[in-house]
Amino acid sequence: MTDKTVIIGLEIHCQLNTKTKLFCGCSTDFQRDEPNTHVCPICLGLPGALPCLNKQAVMHALKVAKALNLTVPEVSEFSRKNYFYPDLPAGYQITQDDKPIAEKGIMEVDDDEGHPKKIRITRIHLEEDPGRLIHKTSRDRAGYSLVDYNRSCIPLIEIVTEPDLRSPKEARRFLNKLRSTLEYLEVFDGEREGSIRVDANISIKGHNRVECKNISSYKGVEKALNFEITRQRNLIRKGQFIEQETRHFLEGRGITTSSRSKENKNDYRYFPAPDLPALRVSEWLKDIVLPELPDARRERFMTQYGISENHARTLTGDLKVANFYESVAGADPAIAAIWVADILLGEINYRSMRIDDVPTMNIADLIVLIRDGAITDKSGVEVLRTMLDACMGQDHEACEMPADIVTRLGLTKAEGDDFTDVIREIIAANPNAVADYRAGKKGAVNFLVGQVMKTTRGRADPKELNIAMDAALKETED
Amino acid sequence: MAKEYFFDKADQTNAFITRLDVAMYEESGGPLQGKGIGISDNISTSGIPTTCASRILAGYVPPFDAHVITLLRKAGAAIVGKTNMDEFGAGNTTEHSAYGPTTNPNEASRVAGGSSGGSAAAVATGMVDMALGSDTGGSIRSPAAFCGVVGFKPTNGRVSRYGLIAYSSSMEQIGPLGKTVTDVNTLMSVIAGPDPRDATMYDRPYAHTPSKDIAGMKIAVPDEFFGEGVDPAVAESVRTAIRKLEDAGAETMTCSIPSMSHALAAHYVTGMCEASTNLSRFDGVRFGPPVETKRPWHEEFSDYRGMFFGKEVQRRILLGTFALTEGYYEKYYAKAQVARENMRKDFLRIFRDADIIAGPTMPQIAPKLGEKSDPISMYLADILTAPASLAGVPAISVPCGTVDKMPVGLQLIGRHFEDERVMDAAFAYESEVL
Amino acid sequence: MLLENDVEGIAKLADIQIQKEELTEITVQFNQILEYIDILDSVSEGEVSNSELINVLREDVVIPSLTQEEACANANETEDGHIRAPRVM
Question: N or C: chain A end with fewer CB closer than 10 Å?
Fold first, then answer.
């Protein structure tokens, strides 16, 4: 529930979808490769190396700026943020300080009552990621670190909001919408490991603000915020003081812990990066053509395909799902909406598959079978499950077509004549139920129909079956 | 085909930190074919140790060549070794080297100047034909003047800094040293090739043949270059040199650079601030002497950096760190940038009427070893070279006589990207006296 | 005027351990240098012109990286292709 006393602001770090790193030509596609194989003198911070800015990263940031209605100042600059840490090769991070690439935007999101609400975006800036640390413990129990610099210099944008969010759910909705917008803009790949990280500022009105750092999932944001609200409320109730501090979110335990950062309060000594000339790109904004964004696509789905708002919302929330739906909607948009939104998404989620893993041709085929009444909905689900189980980890071409599965498993819908014999057998085999029916217990029909369904393995349409059973019972009565 | 370059390996002045046992060159037909070149040890050389004269880089062998090195190899040069310098360029006498001072080739009890003192001494003693140094506030011109060779600081942005180990990014430039203006000109034409890896570089290749025809060239002589702190004998030597330029057809006029009163402070603040962040990467993890990995990182980094950086470098990192902290940035760094802007404006004003500014390179002849032991008196020696570095304009030092048997340097400063005209003026002077 | 205490704070920020016995001398030198640099106080406020260089950008084209061996060649300790560093926990 929206609570006017809860004040939340987010800082969201998203990995930009570029081929090369922010300041060097090393490939960003290192997920499957050995540590320290996507590195060069620049991202390793070797002496004498100089950064050179990736144009694509700038274009991506501008695209986001335009989509979220931000202003691009005439001049923007890079700065060095100075601090030491074993994962930071140069001893500073190149980021943007007082001259970010874009400022002051708006994104609309539904509040907890379902009313649209404007969330102000403070700024967007470009920055590089540090390397990745692994903590090790040696036999003498003295720990050390291992560093992999493949991640070093990966391009990020940081999106900072004003403290306009009022509940953890609202924050989650904001993040979901932001993510889908970034995906529609094709600047972000949400499936990459560590592609989004969130720092959340949260306070109860009239009390100090707490920063929760390093939340790496959408669910985590909601969890961390819920934990913090409860923690802060309890302190207030007990009349205790809420300390202004930085806390770390422990994803596994769903709690935040104090970082005790006061002891080593850092002064980052921001300093204009002397190796990188300024950007003057405000004029470039007008040449950027935005694709259709989630809100617009949702509206279009409702008018063009005549589907419900709920279906449209589910289908447009993820760019790939939306594209998938449009490529299978042809035969019957309404059936397609039900089958993709209500059934397929659940089935792939259960199997930890991605929508990309599902061949559109096969689903289109399935939708035609359903539309034509060639199989029942129940058989349809069986066909889908059979197909997905066999599809996992396969090429799309290798996936068995639903029509073939229907034939192989004998799932063609049973027509009237096909099941009169079965009805007769079931009536003969269940004299007690028949007697109940005769005694006026109408519920006994359901049991008999269920038995027929079981025998025909769902191939019969339940509605048709009910009529036929009624008729058969009446017939035997005479 | 690779050929061996033979050179005299005796090093009387401690000019080298690393000398190659065998120096090879390619018969590429390039302009430097068969020439032996000494490289200041803050310029990265693939496969050859590069230490910046610091213990913190002991044993470091870069996996890549600086852009200028790539160009030198292509031009047929033989790289003979890495020359001594003040650690990371922090100094102007080459006494602040982990490998001991380079002594002056003219008198062993005196300094060679710096920070690129090894390069100047190696040229002066004939160990190499030419050398590369780097100039942040006089580091090429000072040792050139003290050792009696020609040293040139190009316009900032004319030579790629890729591979130059950064001390003060916004002021430093790689430049050539040689016995003659012609040699320096040849080396300059090789190293000024464009490089997309240095985003602050301009695409201004240098292809020039020096001309001694300077008839009508207007030369401004600033009062401040002959003021307090400048040895009268040095001043006289330089005035005589300027008269030679008049003999060659130049017209002279006096001028004033009021912003010089802030030049040294602006230069040192800018340099220290930049150095404090540039030198943060030296933590022993990816290169340098071993770091103890089983200790907490902050303690270990602090002990490591406290142990392996020299005292002068530490002093500058600490001052630069302080000057960038909250509340002091505006007082120091921001003000230094305004002072720098004022220097640029003074130069622009003078260069509306004049083509070249002339004066001494150094206010005095080379001091005795150990003479400039307190920081302030060391910094003061840069007073005449810092202005061109602050403004980013080209400047050369040419030998112009001696005082007490020690060489004196004539400094000629030009407009942005008029490196060629500076070279012409120097060539004209050299032709007059040779 | 910086006190020894201030200098120690700066040293902490710069990750440079100063020996106790050097602290007094360094503090004295610092103050001398700062006194000299304070001449900048007399510079009046002013604009700093922008460099003519703007929008220096690189196309998003992959350039071959170093090999793992080259990347780790100058590191003192490596483990499974990683470089060892002091501990953070």
Answer: C
Residue A122 lies in a domain: yes
The token duo for A306 is: 């005549």
**Is residue C33 situated within a structural domain?**
yes
CA distance B72 to B188: 10
User: Are A309 and A275 part of one and the same domain?
Assistant: no
Measured between alpha carbons, how far is B21 from B1 in angstroms, rounded to an integer?
A: 19
Model pLDDT for residues C40-80, shown as the tens digit of each residue: 999 988 888 878 899 999 999 999 999 999 999 999 999 99
Answer yes or no: is C74 within a domain. no
The answer to whether residues A384 and A432 belong to one domain is no
- Name the 3-class secondary structure at B4: strand
Residue A257 confidence (pLDDT): 87
d(CA A143, CA B332): 41
Report the gap between the CA of A145 and the closest CA in chain C (Å). Answer: 5
B window 63-92, beta carbon within 8 A of A: 63-64, 66
CB-CB neighbors (< 8 A) of C49 in chain B: 341, 344
Considering only residues 245 to 274 of chain B, which have any Cβ-Cβ distance to chain A shorter than 8 Å?
A: 273-274
Q: Is A17 exposed, middle or buried (0-12, 13-18, 19+ CB in 10 A)?
A: buried
pLDDT at res. B33: 96
Domain that holds residue C27: 4-40
Q: How many structural domains are present in chain B?
A: 1
**Has residue C63 been placed in a domain?**
no
Nearest-by-Cβ selection for C40 from B265, B276, B296: B265
By the CB < 8 Å criterion, does C45 face chain A? no
Q: What is the predicted pLDDT for the residue at A460?
A: 75
CB-based contact C63 A269, cutoff 8 Å? no
Asked if B297 lies within 8 A of A267 by C-beta distance, the reply is no
Q: State the smallest CA–CA distance between residue C46 and chain A in angstroms.
A: 18
Tell me what ipTM this predicted complex has.
0.96
Backbone angles phi, psi at B301, to 5 degrees: -60, -45
Query: Terminal CA-to-CA distance of chain B, rounded, Å?
Result: 37
Instruction: Confirm if B92 and B86 have CB atoms less than 8 A apart.
Output: yes
Q: Does residue B293 belong to any structural domain of this protein? A: no
Minimal CA separation from C80 to chain B, in Å:
15
Residues of chain A under the 50 pLDDT cut: 1, 262-263
Name the stretches of chain B with pLDDT < 70. none
Q: What CATH number has the domain bearing residue B151?
A: 3.90.1300.10
Are A59 and A207 in the same domain?
A: yes
Is residue A277 in some structural domain? yes
Number of domains in chain C: 1
Question: Chain A window 12-31: which residues touch C at a Cβ cutoff of 8 Å?
Answer: 18-20, 24-27
Residue with tokens 């034909």, as numbered in its chain: B129
Shared-domain flag, residues A202 and A242: yes
Q: Does a structural domain hold residue B343? A: yes
> CB–CB of B292 and C86 under 8 A?
yes
Give the structural domain span for A445. 416-477
Confirm whether A1 is domain-assigned. no
Q: What is the pLDDT of residue A261?
A: 53
